[in-house]
Amino acid sequence: MSQLQGILTRLKNLQEQAQETESAQRFFEIDGILKCQVTYFSKTEMFELEVFNEKSKSSKYQFDNIDMITIEIFDLLQS
């Protein structure tokens, strides 16, 4: 549960940071390996999750719900 809370806190901070600019970004990694990047766009209030894959191109997903993207990031960090 504490890891979920940590991810949610980082995403909320990202939203606050984006209030001053049009967008803000955060990276999530495990053991120095970059897993994903989250960009928050304040104008549309949307999150964009870019998942980095070792063997293929990165994939991008859009979220309008902070809880859903938190769960997605948590799952990525667990695998």
Across the major sheet, the strand order is 1-2-3-4
Mean pLDDT over the full residue set: 93
In DSSP terms (H or I, runs of 4 or more residues), the helix count works out at 2
Order of helices and strands: HEEEEH
Span of the ends, CA to CA: 16 Å
Which structural class do you get from the secondary structure elements?
A: alpha+beta
Can you tell me the residue ranges where pLDDT is under 50 for at least 5 consecutive residues? none
Please summarize the sheet with the most strands.
4 strands, antiparallel
Helix content: 25-40%
* Quantity of strands, as a count: 4
Portion in beta strands: 35-45%
Radius of gyration: 12 Å
Describe, in plain words, how this protein is organized in 3D:
InterPro entries: YkuJ-like, YkuJ-like_sf. The protein is α+β, with helices and mostly antiparallel strands and 79 residues long. Helices cover 38% and strands 35% of the residues. The chain has helices spanning 2-18, 66-78, and strands at 23-30, 33-41, 46-51, 59-63. The longest helix has 17 residues, at 2-18. The chain is globular. The mean pLDDT is 93.
SSE topology sketch:
Blueprint: H1 2-18, E1 23-30, E2 33-41, E3 46-51, E4 59-63, H2 66-78
Antiparallel strand pairs: 1-2, 2-3, 3-4
Helix pairs in contact: 1-2
Coiled coil: 1-31
InterPro entries: YkuJ-like, YkuJ-like_sf
Keywords: Coiled coil
